[in-house]
Structure formats: C-alpha cells, structure tokens
Amino acid sequence: MSLNPNSTMSRKPRRVRVRSGQVELVKLNTKAFDLRDTYHLILTLSWPGFAGVVFGIYLLINVAFAALYMLNPHAIAEMAPGSFSDAFFFSVETLATVGYGHMYPETFYGHLIAMLEIMVGMFGLAVITGLIFVRFSRPTARLHFSNVAVIAPFDGVPTLMIRVANLRHQAMVEPEFRMIVNRDTITAEGDDVRRFRLLKLEFEHLIAFPAVLTVRHRIDEKSPLFGMTPEDFQKQDVRIVASIVGVDTVIVAPVQSLRDYNYDQIEWNRRFVEIYAENEEGDWTVDYARIDETEDIVAMAQ
Fold first, then answer.
1. How far apart are CA 8 and CA 16, in angstroms?
2. Could you read off the pLDDT of 49-97 as tens digits, one per residue?
C-alpha cells in the first residue's frame, strides 16, 4: 500500500504523549506541532510559560530592530556608532510608541524602520491584550470529584456512587451529569477490543447544584456492570469516567469538569459518610472536610 506524499499523517519517527485523565497515550507518525495551532498552544501554557513566551518574543523583536537600526550608522540621531545598547533601548521606546526626545530617526531609512516597528508594536499589543483577556476570562469549573468511587447497596440494589462537590459559593445551574464505563472485552471473532458504554444515572439533569451531591448508577439487569465482581473489574481493566457540564451564574458561561476512576479506585461494600446535618439554629450544614470519607457496611447480599 502506497502513502500519499502530501499526507499530513506520513510515517515519521515522531512520538507525541497525550494525557486524558489518568490515561496516557503515545501518538505515532503525527505532527508534534502545527503553526495553525499556535493560538491554542499559547492558551494551554501555564502562566509562567505564557509570560516566558511573551517576554521572549518581546526581546526577539527588539533585538531584530536594533540590528536593523545599526545597519545604517546615521539612521538615528545621537545614537553612538556601533552601540547595540543604544539601538536596543531606542527600539524598546519606539515599539512602545514612547519618545524621550534624546534619539530620533534622522534619515529616510531610520524613519522607515521606526514606522515598521511602531506598526509591529500596535499589532503586537492588540494580540497580547487579546490573549491575556482570553486567559483571564476563560470560564473554569471548581468542582471536586471524590477520590474514590464506591459500590454498595442503595434501596436494596447494588449501586455505583461518586460524590461531587461545588467548591464555589454560587450555585451552578442546569448541570448535566454523564458517566461511562470502558473495559476490555472479547468480540465474537476473538478480537480484544475496548468497549465504551453509557451508564444510566439516577438523575442526569438538575436545575441547580449549590453544594455536594452523590451521582448514582443502579447495577441492575440492564446495567453493563451487572453480575461483575471486583476480580472482573481488574481482569477487564474497568475504568469509570464521570463528567459534569453546567452554567456558571456569575459569568453566565458553560463550564465542565471530569474525572476518571481505575478499577483499584473503586471500593466495594463501602459507602460515603453522611456530611449533611442540621445545627441547633435549624440551618443545614455541609462538612466539606469529609467529602472523600467512606465507611464499611454490611456485606452486600448476593
């Protein structure tokens, strides 16, 4: 089979690591970077990395224009011949459209380079301002998923449960909950494949989510997990992925968060401790310090 020489998926010894939750994949024969993804890459950088990139570009631009100014010794009035520092700081002042009056373009060449640098400064400032605004205004969800999932009887039926907490002090509205299971299975042809199945939840949509709640999936005859044991979970490398998508009421924008659980992060015959209580004043309290705590229960009926 021949490969298209213009294909972007050409076979080259390139390895790109991609992480999704606790799973890390290594992509082969793919581009590590595409110029069309520069904007996306910059937005995914950490704040120190973002500051480093901006500062590096700023220095590079000023060094380049300083070199252009030095090509013509008489381009800038009162600039010491051969002085890179003078040319560099003149470039800094021009890029920021700040003129101190000591040095100024003297020739047509000098005016031309200064004009180009001012244009670069104007466009660059607009781009950097936009990137900073997007990074600050990008909506994020402050949600905490319990460190473990549990399987225990609930209303007499084995139930998979995950606890979720809203860490912000404003209620999220219109939250939607999803949970899937992926595991290794053997097809009728004898192939080992990874299957993904949506798990039906006790509730998948609420009007408001102010504090802490437990997301539940009943393991009945219709459940993909029905009849499975802890040993089956390990043998089939079961992973549970839970997600929430809702609207932040402060910025009125959709936010989302997710968490995955390996088979060894699922506790059997244990339940989450009660964290809701009514105090002496009649107020309902929620103990966030005990969100991840679980406790033993009577062994699940077979």
1. 15
2. 999 999 999 999 999 999 999 998 888 998 988 899 999 999 999 998 8
Which three-class secondary structure state does DSSP give residue 302? Answer: coil
Q: Give the dihedral of Cα atoms 204, 208, 295, 240; nearest 10 deg.
A: 30
Structure tokens at 218: 């009943």
- H-helix or E-strand spanning residue 149: strand 149-154
| Phi, then psi, of 161 in degrees rounded to 5 | -130, 140
pLDDT band at 297 (very low <50, low <70, confident <90, very high): confident
Q: For residues 260 and 231, what is the distance between their CA atoms, to the nearest angstrom?
A: 19
CA pair distance 11, 271, nearest whole angstrom: 50
- Show the domains of the chain with their CATH numbers: 45-137 (1.10.287.70), 143-296 (2.60.40.1400)
pLDDT digits (tens, 9 = 90+) for 168-218: 988 899 999 999 999 998 888 888 898 999 999 999 999 999 999 999 999
What is the per-residue DSSP string for 233-301?
A: HHHTT-EEEEEEEEEETTTTEEEEEEEEEEGGGEEETEEEPP-EEE-TTS-EEE-GGGTT-EEE-SPPP
- Give the integer Cα–Cα distance in Å for 87 and 235: 68
Residues, the chain = 302
Residue 166 tokens read as 């809203």
Mean pLDDT of the chain: 87
Residue 242: CB atoms within 10 A of its CB come to 23
Task: Please check whether residue 238 is in contact with residue 181, taking contact to mean a CB–CB distance below 8 angstroms.
Answer: yes
